[in-house]
């Protein structure tokens, strides 16, 4: 039995078009009896979140959606660690920029500095939304070993940022890309206990990235294949969406949501949940029956 989780990234970050994107997506999920975990940037670009975004996030929470922090400022893709795949495949300049700024950026990755950022994010969530965060997501999947120590010290036990598959992004590569099923082999496919005993809930895939609607039927089929496979490996499966990706083609986004919902509905015992619910119930911790590998260089 697998609990499937819809997550939406980059809330709080961007203009009115993206505020509308979050509202349309959460309204559609609600019309299907579904809730999502919204990863929102507490202080985008190091300034307070706009009144428009704050209102939208409060409304989403009142409608039953789960709010958790996406970093603190998301001013770049190096907030909590060096650049990571698949962000580096989407933005190849991430690595070269990091290399050029290495001396500066590496100074960020101390336990004390990272803890301060995490605790500031937690304080904003508590003050603005009445939420005590349980799960954290580092922007762009960029993480480091000190980051996990900082999470533990700050009192957060869960992270969700490692990818099982990045094939949902292959279509943006030169020549169209091969978006057939292709999973990594360096991490477990289920939640796992990682550095400082933080539970990592890996991301299955993303099917609504920019321009994916141009190959909508392929992404729907890829999602079905991924759902079948993850059901054999894990009691928890995390699906990723972005506010800007959804806004690129709502028709495709809603088609994917319905296709996933219908496919999950055919699986005995399968259900939908939020990461907050799974953390609060203990189900996320119980799902982490394996340890993660020591693969981070920093």
> In the CATH classification, which architecture applies?
Alpha-Beta Barrel
Average pLDDT, rounded to a whole number, is 96
Quote the distance from N terminus to C terminus: 36 Å
As for the number of domains, it is 1
CATH C-level class is Alpha Beta
CATH topology: TIM Barrel
- Give the helix tally: 11
Q: Specify the overall morphology.
A: globular
Question: Low-confidence stretches at least 5 residues in length (pLDDT < 50)?
Answer: none
Biggest sheet statistics: 6 strands, parallel
The succession of helices and strands, N to C, reads EHEHEHHHEHEEEEHEHHEHHE
Percent range for helical residues? Answer: 40-55%
Beta-strand fraction estimate = 5-15%
Structural class: alpha/beta
- If you compute it from the alpha carbons, what radius of gyration comes out, rounded to the nearest whole angstrom? 18 Å
User: How many β-strand stretches?
Assistant: 11
CATH homologous superfamily label: Glycoside hydrolase/deacetylase
Could you give the topology of this structure?
Elements: E1 3-11, H1 16-31, E2 36-40, H2 51-62, E3 66-69, H3 87-90, H4 93-106, H5 111-129, E4 135-136, H6 145-154, E5 158-159, E6 192-193, E7 199-200, E8 203-206, H7 216-231, E9 236-242, H8 243-248, H9 250-265, E10 271-272, H10 275-281, H11 283-287, E11 290-291
Parallel strand pairs: 1-2, 1-9, 1-10, 2-3, 4-5, 5-7, 6-11, 8-9
Antiparallel strand pairs: 6-7
Helix pairs in contact: 1-2, 1-9, 5-6, 7-9
InterPro entries: Glyco_hydro/deAcase_b/a-brl, NODB_dom
Pfam families: Polysacc_deac_1
Domain NodB homology: 10-156
